[in-house]
Design brief:
It comes from Streptomyces sanglieri. This is FAD-dependent oxidoreductase. Its cofactor is FAD. With 127 residues, this protein is of the alpha/beta class. The protein has a single domain, classed as FAD/NAD(P)-binding domain, CATH 3.50.50. The relative contact order is 0.22. Helices cover 13% and strands 24% of the residues. The protein is globular and about 50 Å long. It contains two helices and seven strands, in the order βαβαβββββ. The strands form two sheets. A four-stranded parallel β-sheet has the order 3-2-1-7, with helices on one face. A three-stranded antiparallel β-sheet has the order 4-5-6, with no helix packed on it.
């Protein structure tokens, strides 16, 4: 059985990890698990996609040959003793090494209507 590195997250940091791991000679199986329906992409270019300057497919990020990307597959729990991920679909997956690349909360600008009266998103004026 080959060594498996599970990466919780399939965004920019996860893609970069997988790419650099391969570039430095890593030979374990690498699996990225992401909640989104598509693989890693450059989120910085999203505004340019919306304006038509970039094609959505042009935002895809390389993640290294031999890396598997599991889309629509959120990691919802960890069993650190058994070294298993619990996935949103009810299945589990084993790992030998674990990388957490879950991203960060965005910094939201102070725009009127961005937050509702309770401080959460979805204010009446949003949009």
């Amino acid at each position: 059985m080959s060594r498996r590195i599970a990466v919780a997250g399939a965004g920019m940091a996860a893609a970069r990890f997988a790419q650099q791991y391969r570039a430095h000679g890593g030979d374990a199986e690498v699996v990225l698990y992401g909640a989104e329906p598509r693989g890693p992409y450059n989120r910085v270019l999203l505004a340019d996609v919306l304006t038509g300057r970039h094609d959505p497919e042009g935002t895809a990020l390389p993640h290294g040959a031999g890396t598997t990307v599991r889309t629509g597959c959120e990691v919802v729990g960890l069993d650190l003793v058994e070294r298993r991920l619990r996935l949103s679909g009810g299945e589990s997956a084993r790992y030998d090494e674990l990388v957490l690349a879950t991203g960060a909360n965005p910094v939201l600008p102070p725009l009127r209507g961005l937050h509702g009266p309770d401080g959460r998103g979805g204010g009446e004026d949003a949009g």
